[in-house]
Amino acid sequence: MKKFYKPNLDDFLPMIASFKKNEEEIQLNFFLYKLKNEWQNIVGEGYFWDTEPLFYRDKTLIILVNHSTYSLELNANKSLILKNIEQVLGGKYIEKLSFKDGFVKKNRNLKLYPKKQTLEGKEKLIKIIEKEEDEKVREKLLELVKLMK
Hints:
Blueprint (H helix, E strand, L loop, with lengths): L8 H29 L1 H5 L1 H4 L2 E7 L2 E6 L2 H9 L1 H12 L6 E6 L20 H9 L4 H13 L2
Parallel strand pairs: 2-3
Antiparallel strand pairs: 1-2
Helix pairs in contact: 6-7
């Protein structure tokens, strides 16, 4: 019969320590992922295009900025930004902001807020058009309104 090696608890301590390290790394990556996804809501559309959360270390968020002017502006608004970050992450995990000049590349054709197609106001428009005295103009305008989705 084959004898099995009976491990000692000390044999597992390095592995357990690595799990803890991996857990912390996963949490940091999750925070960064969440910040990147909510970045426009955190800093606003004006700063969104020229800034990006780069990495997170020791309760400090490093932010990549296109120009040092953005560093100054964001630093002036850091209490509001930290408050927004706290709301997004559900706790005070970040206490400081640090800025790094670089190149933030984002697709400016990205549709951040897709416009909702709605017929809101169509009825009002029809009522206004019906008051038009020129019959030909009224008919053309009503045809245009019918083409609206």
